[in-house]
């Protein structure tokens, strides 16, 4: 159904010096959903997030089709309908302007509103994210805010123009657990308040479990598995997803920690066939010959020649045996 798709990405390819780091990625973001993008470092998560925002690094060649509500022209160069939730609140705010002025400027950059109205919206936005005494705080500078308050202020900034899509790339990686939960809670509340979808890049499967409706697992610049979070985490169909899960301490069951052996290949040094095959306990001849395409499996997409052989529980694939 057309209305089920808010943002569509088709055959996204991002290359540096002719070497592709994102290799033909296609997915949809649905209205108001939280879509997590997960995978090890180097999978192409950040490049994908930046492509949604039109913020490509120097030297990148990007092809593919990104549409918001079916329209490629709605995908802006810098986020308005698609807005970034920055990872580093301090560097996301200018040190030389009061926080309220920065929020008001963001309002005025999009909407034709008066200064007074923009200021009122800035104060309201600070109030909404739970900053006490918002009228006074709007006149304060970022260094006068606590770390937690700054985090709230940048969430206010990201949501003040009521974007359709929020993009957050590892928004909590630098934070301790308590602060992490707080930031994700405030972000979730604001996302719901403005009715935005959220594309949440993370390597933290606990964050995925707690916050994402669907999970997109990436490996070596491609889609490995995409589906409802509860299904993907409870019963992964791709061996790579199982490997990520097996790396979680909860699957050790008091034994040695099961792990995903090896490291992902660099974009310029991909093995033949499936990029995961050299690390995959299920790899067969076919896996070393042709790269699997994402194919539907129930409510999911899975790119694996051998997904029907994946056991349940899938983490058993990676269980390390105790030395005798
Ligand atoms: N600015 C860049 N110049 C050259 N190569 C890059 C650049 N940014 C990313 N890459 C390549 O793309 C790969 C994926 O990058 P990235 O999307 O940042 O991965 P992730 O966020 O999943 O860790 C990197 O491992 C690197 O090989
Ligand atoms: Mg990254």
Low-confidence stretches: none
Shape: elongated
Helix content: 25-40%
Hetero compounds:
adenosine-5'-diphosphate, magnesium ion
Describe the structure.
The protein has helices at 45-53, 89-92, 99-110, 115-128, 134-137, 147-159, 177-194, 205-211, 229-234, 239-246; strands at 7-16, 19-29, 34-38, 60-68, 82-85, 165-169, 197-201, 214-219, 222-228, 295-297, 300-302. It is α/β, with parallel strands linked by helices and 324 residues long. Strands 5-6-7-3-8-9-11-10 form an eight-stranded mixed beta sheet, with helices on both faces. The model has no long low-confidence stretch (mean pLDDT 91). Helix 3 packs across helix 4 (115-128). The structure holds adenosine-5'-diphosphate (ADP) and magnesium ion (MG). Magnesium ion binds at residues 45-46.
Short overview:
This protein is 29% helix and 21% strand. By secondary structure, the chain is α/β, with parallel strands linked by helices.
Key attributes of the depicted protein:
single chain; 324 residues; eight-stranded mixed beta sheet; three-stranded antiparallel beta sheet; binds adenosine-5'-diphosphate; binds magnesium ion
